[in-house]
Amino acid sequence: MGDPISQLMDARRSCEGVGNRRRLFAQFDQIFAEGVGDVLDLPTSAARSLGPAGGGFRLRSLTMTNWKAFRSGTVQLGIHDTNRPLTLIGGNNGNGKTSILQALTMGLYGSRCSIEGEGLGAGEGGGRRTEYRLFIERAMHRPAFEAGERMIQVTIEFVTRQGLLEIERHWYLDDAGRFLEEDEELVLRTGEDRDIVPVPADRELAEYYEETISRLIAPPSMMPFFLFDGEHVRRLAERDLSEQVRFGIESALGISTLKGLVDDLKDYARDRARDIQADDAEAAAALKWQAISAERERALGDLIEVEAKLHPLQVHRDEIVQGLGALGNGTYNDKQEELHLRHGEEAQLRKLRDDLRLSLTKHLPIALVGKSLLAATERSLKQGLGESLAAPEGLSALVGQLRSLEPRLDFDAEKLVVDRVEKAWAALSEKKLPIGHAYLEGHRIGPIVQTMADVRKEGMEFIRDSLAAIEQLKASISARNTLLSARASADQERERLAGELSTINSSIAVLDAERRRIDQALGSIEGRMVPINAEWEKRRALRKVSSPMLVSVELANEVVMIVNRAIERIVPEYYGILAERVTAIYRQLAHKGVVERIAIDSRGMVSLLDRQGRDLRENDASAGENQIFAMSLTAAISELLDGPLPLIIDTPLGRLDTQHRERILRFLSGRSVQAVLLSQPEEVGSAYYRLISPKVHDEFHLEYVPSETGIGGTRIALGYFERHAA
After folding, report:
1. What is the reported pTM?
2. Which PANTHER family does this UniProt record tie to the protein (predicted)?
């Protein structure tokens, strides 16, 4: 037996849409009858069935024949240019934009797009086989049917990592317009020569081709994340954020399909167990086992619930501790030292200003005089001062000469002569104001001249130094004030965080105690399970000899348990990866910029965190903001596969406001991944067209062609709307 999970999935796919489940259960019987020896492979098989598949492709062309509004039509895209990733297909309402999107979904997945995927978003293609049949019947181009045509054809070319892949699907109607389901055809071709893909001898053609499409392109569960319309984004946005995330992860990992298998296996086990009769002893052992297993499940559920409450508290606690560390460790003494230094600098500043004020009073009037005038005034004063002064030593020399005359004068005559000479000398020594300086009357000229010299040599230098010192002190005081203010704010924030941390630690302590209690209870339960299980296994072993079907029932239950465990183990690993991608894209698209990080815990619960770690989900978001999150999630999910998915979007901008529209267009045009926009003329009009035109590689528009005989059709023309592209 090969991969047991894959075989079970293949059996389920082969019976899709069949109302009677006996055929499916018969295939399960055969698989389990052959797979008894492979039970140990089940965990590996389950893990292998989970995980992203596909991706790394781009659309090359789409050809439609007798499809809805198109008698025939082809969208042929040029060689992909990572610098010009956009394709624009414009069309008025009713001209066929949605028909193109539906041709891609139906051409890719056929009935699987309405059974495994999310439908077509327009409601027309949703549901099961009946809805699929009705959709195909309505998809027939009416004028072609009236002209005798009975076949619808959609051909899609993709460039994949393994080269060109052509997918061609045919649907046939009878003369009454009824869809002939058994005649539906799917053909895959590869390479430029269009060689038909060979099918292994042990595989069904349709099953193998559908598997090839899922592997090289993407599974049907991923359809809502690369082929969708604006209405789908709006509906997704109406869901709770956590529900959106879980839906996205389950789609990317193929979990919804596995869950469908689990449900079928449970039904199978219940159905087959009805034919197995147990004796009283085994029934009693089974009841004991079921009771203690239920007790264990309840305890595990309680533990999961406690851990789900504990995890976000622990994350928030760590964020608070990190925030406290970022606030620094300023002490009371540090604050007092800063205050002391600031007071000292303020005292220095006051003294400097007083000294400067005195200096300016003394020196500023003279300093304001021009240099040339000041120099001339100084020279004039010095000259006048020199002419008016007689040196005292000259008087002494003159008196000495008079007293040495021969013949000497008598005492009285000598005294009289000396008195007269001294009076004459004194007259010579009296101050004489220089010409033009009468305002100096009553002032000493010498100190004035000295002051002028001081101003020129030292006064201006003192003023400059004082001003520089004042500015330096002011800057230092301002810096200290800023530091003290920041420390005051930090003290308040530290006090707030400390209070919040205390509350959180109390809650964590309570939950930790509860977790320990549950762990102890689980240990006790699992200890009691050992003898009960041993007794039940002994009774079952005796009955397996007489009831071979019991092996299949037990193996089905084993698969259910292993698949569920694989989902529980693997899914949380992708939540962290998804959170990083959603955060990066959301920050590009949202114009408010308040969301710093999007966190997704192990249960898929979403938090929109600001810079302080507060969850902004407590605030009501606008419809536009919810759509931006849904768009971010859609783009992020499309990047989880082995390669990024192109985005093919009908009416991409919907009801978004101007800023959000611009950001979405910038985001799509800024990626290197292909994006095909099916837009109305008002959506990507003149301003928006000019915004993205350098990134547009291919342009088309849809033209309605009326018919004189009845219903018209649509043709695909090159170029975007002329009035908007101008």
Report:
1. 0.62
2. ABC TRANSPORTER ABCH.3
